[in-house]
Amino acid sequence: MKINGGRQIDEKSAPRLYELVTELCLASGLPLPKIYLLPIDCPNAFATGCDPEHASLAVTSGLLEMMNDDELRGVLGHELAHIKNYDIRVTTIAMSLLELVRYSGWGLLTAGLGLMSVKTRAGIIKLIFWMIGASLAVVGGLIAIVGIPLAKIAFFAISREREYLADAGSVEITRDPSGLISALEKLKNDDHQMPTDDAATNAICFNAKQGNWLMKLFDTHPPLEKRIARLKDSAS
């Protein structure tokens, strides 16, 4: 938080934000997280912490300026739903599994190529090394070419589904879908974006970067239009 110039706030330094978070925590039965305000123009918010007892909630100054109280409640409810659903832990585990697949693929490929290049005078030993190395290289290559992209697609699909669940959780906490719908509609027409392409960072942000039509499988968040449509359907 402090890397981005964030500061922890209390009821005196940022009464509006503090009171809204406190109100929603009482409504949801969650302990009050540490609350940070980031001096960033991009309207955004995110939660961190692997469980509700050790959670932090960050909001950018741009979000505070853009949203009215009902809209801000919707966004804060979304982030508190992430905390309540242990989504930060889920994201961390999913990212760790993705990295495991990545390193396994490239590790096996590298080890296989290394064994294939072993030099020895004993022909039979060289053949054994070459066969083992070729097998490892083939498996590693398949993981690198097929397994890693599939693991990435699975990770991003999980992330998008957790966003839908957090939207529903926000409505459950606030008892009012209109605030979140209005907030998402404002963000849809906003040009600001968080200055990062990092998947792990985007996965925990409320207003994450969206890819082009070809990269939708690798977006951490569903399109704003689909989120709005789901909320409107659930409200009708």
TrEMBL record:
<keyword id="KW-0645">Protease</keyword>
<dbReference type="InterPro" id="IPR001915">
    <property type="entry name" value="Peptidase_M48"/>
</dbReference>
<keyword id="KW-1003">Cell membrane</keyword>
<dbReference type="GO" id="GO:0004222">
    <property type="term" value="F:metalloendopeptidase activity"/>
</dbReference>
<feature type="domain" description="Peptidase M48">
    <location>
        <begin position="13"/>
        <end position="233"/>
    </location>
</feature>
<keyword id="KW-0378">Hydrolase</keyword>
<dbReference type="GO" id="GO:0046872">
    <property type="term" value="F:metal ion binding"/>
</dbReference>
<comment type="similarity">
    <text>Belongs to the peptidase M48 family.</text>
</comment>
<keyword id="KW-1133">Transmembrane helix</keyword>
<keyword id="KW-0812">Transmembrane</keyword>
<protein>
    <submittedName>
        <fullName>M48 family metallopeptidase</fullName>
    </submittedName>
</protein>
<dbReference type="Pfam" id="PF01435">
    <property type="entry name" value="Peptidase_M48"/>
</dbReference>
<keyword id="KW-0482">Metalloprotease</keyword>
<dbReference type="InterPro" id="IPR050083">
    <property type="entry name" value="HtpX_protease"/>
</dbReference>
<keyword id="KW-0479">Metal-binding</keyword>
<dbReference type="GO" id="GO:0006508">
    <property type="term" value="P:proteolysis"/>
</dbReference>
<keyword id="KW-0472">Membrane</keyword>
<feature type="transmembrane region" description="Helical">
    <location>
        <begin position="127"/>
        <end position="151"/>
    </location>
</feature>
<keyword id="KW-0862">Zinc</keyword>
